[in-house]
Structure formats: C-alpha cells, structure tokens
Request: fold
Amino acid sequence: MGGRRVARPPSSRLTGLPRQAAFAVLLVAALATGRAVETLMPVGDEVAAPFERTGGVGDRIEARWGDVEVTSVAGSTRIEDPYGATHVTGGVYVVVDWTYTAAGEPQVPAWVAIRDTEGRVFRTSLERNPYSSGGAAQPGIPRRVAAAIEVPADAVAGAELVITLEPNPENHRRDDVAVVDLGLTQDDADAWAASEEPLEVAEPADGPGAMS
Amino acid sequence: MRPPGWWRRNRWGLIALPVTVVAALAASSYRVETYWWVEKPRDLVHAERGEWVTFSASQYDRTGDVPFTVRVRLDDVRPADTPFGEDAPLELPAGVQAVAVDLALAAAPDVPLTSCDLVVRDASGTEYAYQSSSPSISQATSPCVPPDARGPELDLFEGLDPDTGPPRPGEWTVSPVVLLPDGVEVAEVLLSWGPPDGLLISAE
Reply:
C-alpha cells in the first residue's frame, strides 16, 4: 500500500509539502476529536461513577467487599448513644440497624450516610451522628451495627442509606456502594419529628443475633 | 533499482515502538508500588508446619531501616480456649470459632519485633486477621512476642525510650487467637513485619 506512492513519477518539490500539510491537518483533527470527546461526552462523571448496589429493608445487598442487610429503621428527636449520652435534635434522628458481612478479608464500612431525594448527604460523625463499626469485621462473621443520623424532617421521606468502605467520597469512584431504600414516607417524618422517646443506638456485636 | 519497502523505511520507528510502549507503561505505573505492591505481603518466604524457617526482612523507624532476622516454627493450629495473653475464657457468638496459632520464635533480644501482623487463610484464600480487640475478643496487641516480655519497640517517637520493659528471651512461644466462622479450616498462616515481605507457613 505504502509503496504505491513511491512508485509514481517523483515530483520532487511538491511531494514534501502536501505530506507535511496532511500531517498537520491530521494532528489538529486528532486533538480536536479528543477535545470533543472529552467535553461533549459525560466521560468524567460516568466513567468514575460508583456502582450502586440497591435494595430495600430486609434485602441482602451484595457488594464487592461484602454484603449488607438493613434489619430495622426507627426515628425520633432523641437518641441515647452507646456511651449513655442523650442527643436532641430539632430535626429527626434516623436510627438504622444493619448487618454487615465482609468478603475475602477483614474490612470496615467506614462511609455510612443518609441520602435524601434531593441528593443531600448526611454522614455519620464522631459526636452527634453515632456509628461504630467495631473495627474490621472478619469475613463470614456477621457484624451487627447501628447508625443514628440527624437530618431535617424534609429529608426523611424517600431517604436511602449509603454504605461503602472508603471514608473519602473521592475514592468511591468505580467502587461498589450499597444503597438501601429505607422505605420512609412523610407520615414517618411527621411522627418521628413529634416523638420525644429516646432511641437507643446499639453497640457493634458479632454473630447473627436474635433478629435472624 | 527497487525503492526500499515500507518495513525498511520505517525500521527505526518499528524498533523504537516497543521500547516506547514499555517506557510509557513504566512512566505511568508509579502507583503500582504504592497501591498494590506494598499494600499487602507479596514477597513471600514459604515454609511447612513443624520446621524452623529463617526469615529476614526490614522495618523502619526514626533511625532509618531496621533490618532483622527471626526464626519461626509453626507448631499447631488448634481450637482456642482463652484469648492470647488473657486468663478469662473466650465467649463467642453463635457461628464463630476461635483458633490458636501456636508459634515458636527465636531472635536476638535487641531486635524489635512487636509490630507484626498475623493472618490465617483458608484453602480458597480468604483471609482472617489477628485482632487484639473486636466486639468478640480482647487480647494482647502483638501476636508475635510474649505479652509480658515484648522486648524493644521500634524507635518511633522522640524522647520515648523504645526499650523499657522486661527483656525478651532468646526463644519463645506465642498462641495468638483468630476468630473465624464455624466450619472454616485454616490452610496457611501468614506473618509479616511490614509489606511487601512476609512469611507464609502451610498449616496442613
């Protein structure tokens, strides 16, 4: 194929210029194509998006790093954390009990958050949003944990619990994230925003427990 | 005269191509070491149960690299009654078993060996780690040294003497306890004083 061009009668001065021009045109076209692909296609967000493994309360959701099952959801304006301290909110405390079973090696689900229908994210924290993983869970041994997260009352209906290993959300890219639809309604939100009964936030424990 | 063919005209480019590809991959592979190679023990010395094996590796602290040599023998992997270094009997949740990993070790008393990780693996490669504290167990912090005679620590903090406790004997035994689900059989024991070096002992 390439030899054909050389076999033509040489027009010495003209051959060099069109080839260089063609090369320049190709180079610019390649750069422009790359730029177009980068800007016009949603590569940045789509390629890096986490893989959401979804389910509801009572479903066993399988992820790369283990499986997750929410066993109960409750709410109130007051909680009692594992250290005996009571916390009060002007919004709602959503208290989720769930079981985590690691796969492959001991692992810790360090990111636990509630995501509302608007996409707002409310994370667990050291003081006001208690959640203790109990450290890395051995694979195959179910770890029962509880998370209490303070949210505004308008975030309750349709809220999801989001669980994954990496504490830094930047590192959720291309990793499995368990997303549990908590099945909450506006009625739950209203009832919980009016409830003053303190909910106990359980300490982490191993084993299947009495629930299952 | 025949003009030179395409392969001949482009021979230097063709020779350079594989070199360039390798150089490009190497230049973009700097994370392989950080995120993979030193993430877990991967450069393994293999040994069998019941035999002494000599393991040499290096740790590092404020003073720089701290090379060490330790001799290790795996004696047994058996059901455990008590946590390592504790007297109170184990209280395990349903579906959980505890295995004690009986190891004999020998090293010079001035070698810091406290910061070691112990992992047991089943035949499928699933790993269960030694944990000094979890909701179901509380035991000695290091699985590799006698809890009452740990020997020197790595020199990690300025102003802290790394060697204050009772001296470690020249040879000693430990029985760290690992929790596993019922029915899991331990196939291998993996000891490491910092990746990528590790000592893999078959428990069969």
In short: Chain B has two domains: 1-37, 41-202. The mean pLDDT of chain B is 93. Chain B touches chain A at residues 3, 5-6, 9, 93-96, 125-129, 131, 133-136, 178-181, 184 (CB under 8 Å).
